[in-house]
Amino acid sequence: MTIQEFKKLSIAELKSTSPSPALDTDVLLEHALGLTKTDLLLKTNQLIETEKFEWLKAALEKRKTGLPVAYITGYKEFYGYNFHVNPDVLIPKPDTEILVERAIEIIIEKMEAHPGKILSVCDMCTGSGCIGISVMKTLLQKYKISPSALPKFTLADISAPALETAHKNADSLILSPAEDSGSKVLLESKLCFIQSNLFEMLPYQYDIILSNPPYIPHTMVDELLKDGRNEPRLALDGDISLTGERAKDKNGQQKDDGLSVIKNLILQSKDSLCTMGTALVETGEYNAKQTAEFAEKSGFSAQIHKDLEGQLRVVELNKKT
Predict the structure, then answer these.
(1) With contact defined as beta carbons under 8 Å apart, do 2 and 45 qualify?
(2) What stretches of 1-111 adopt beta strand conformation (E)?
(3) Fewer CB within 10 Å, N or C, the chain?
(4) Max Cα separation, the chain?
(5) Is the model's pTM score more than 0.90?
(6) 36-76, pLDDT tens digit by residue?
(7) 302 forms bridges with which residues in the sheet?
(8) Helix, strand, coil shares, percent, the chain, to 5
(9) Measured between alpha carbons, how far is 281 from 220 in angstroms, rounded to an integer?
(10) CA distances (Å), origin 172, targets 82, 129, 137, 168
(11) Kind and range of the H or E element at 288?
């Protein structure tokens, strides 16, 4: 079968289950055949090798169940970098890139204001590590910050399998590209991975806290997972208490606003942020204002940043004292 014939077959079979059958097909072909988008256009009559065709057929069947393409290929591009992903972690979304951009701005500002100080950054609920690792790699690659001057990054998550994925991404994107063994050792000293229920196992203070915590209302998660996307509920459901149960209000009613994890994160950040420290928290567009209001009631100043589509997305918290 040629590339063009497979594209026609795949698009036809995915029409009823995928919102983007053509894009899905191209991504699967690029991954299986090691081709670029341009190659696919130029090599439409190229025959697909038997082994690769068998992989593509199996991948097509998986996609028809609703499994995301990123979980099938094992990779997802985020902020220009290729991250390992699997069903233990959320698939990085473009909306989160605004958090990365603002984090880099804040770090550069703080480094310029306090020359010689080694900043500390915590990526809480790190998942694949896409936020912390993207910030760290950009500081190294784009801003040419030396490994010795680089902030120290703590990547924390309640999930051990998620931390394993984050560690894998740090190795492939930060440690493996190191120019020499000395640089690698220095970069390793700038990275720390800790399994923790929010800040429970982190008795430290940070200059900057970054987080894309679970923030989706419980019943909305139920609806999202019906399509077979297979993303971890633990990383989605914002209505979970610190003990791992469905959160309840003071009247004993189950909460369904996606704010329970965020509220606990904000309250714990009061002790986990240094004086004049900053936290960036991703929220849903439907609960960003409530997050900002709660932060201000908790003693922070708060500002909301919009994502690429103009939706309220990231709440910036600054500790006043």
Answers:
(1) yes
(2) 75-78, 81-84
(3) C
(4) 66
(5) yes
(6) 999 998 999 999 999 999 999 999 999 999 999 999 999 99
(7) 317
(8) 45, 20, 35
(9) 20
(10) 9, 12, 11, 6
(11) helix 288-297
Matching residue, tokens 């063994």: 181
Q: In the structure encoding, which two tokens stand for residue 227, read together?
A: 């399509």
* φ, ψ for residue 191, nearest 5 deg: -120, 135
3-state secondary structure of 208: strand
Spatial distance between the Cα atoms of 243 and 131, rounded to a whole number of angstroms: 26
Structure tokens at 291: 């997050």
Q: Would you give the DSSP letter of residue 214? A: -
- Strand, coil or helix: 275: strand
CA angle 247, 162, 243 (to 5 degrees): 20
Instruction: Report how far residue 131's alpha carbon sits from residue 99's, in angstroms, rounded to the nearest whole number.
Output: 8
Per the CB < 8 A criterion, the answer to whether 136 and 150 are in contact is yes
Give residue-wise pLDDT tens across range 154-169.
999 999 999 999 999 9
CA nearest to 87, candidates 233, 269, 259: 233
Nearest-5° angle of CA 295, CA 242, CA 202?
A: 75
Take residue 69 and report the two structure tokens written for it: 């393409």
At 181, which helix (H) or strand (E)? Answer: helix 181-189
Sign of CA dihedral 197, 199, 201, 207: positive
Q: d(Cα 111, Cα 114) in Å, to the nearest integer?
A: 5
Dist. CA 212–CA 129, nearest whole Å: 10
The sheet that has 300-306: what strands, in order across it? 191-195, 152-157, 120-124, 206-211, 273-282, 312-319, 300-306
- DSSP state, 287? T
Q: What is the DSSP string of 94-160?
A: GGGHHHHHHHHHHHHHHHHHSTT---EEEEET-TTSHHHHHHHHHHHHTS---TTTSPEEEEEES-H
Residue 88 near residue 160 (C-beta atoms within 8 A): no
- Given a contact cutoff of 8 angstroms between Cβ atoms, the answer to whether 72 and 59 are in contact is yes
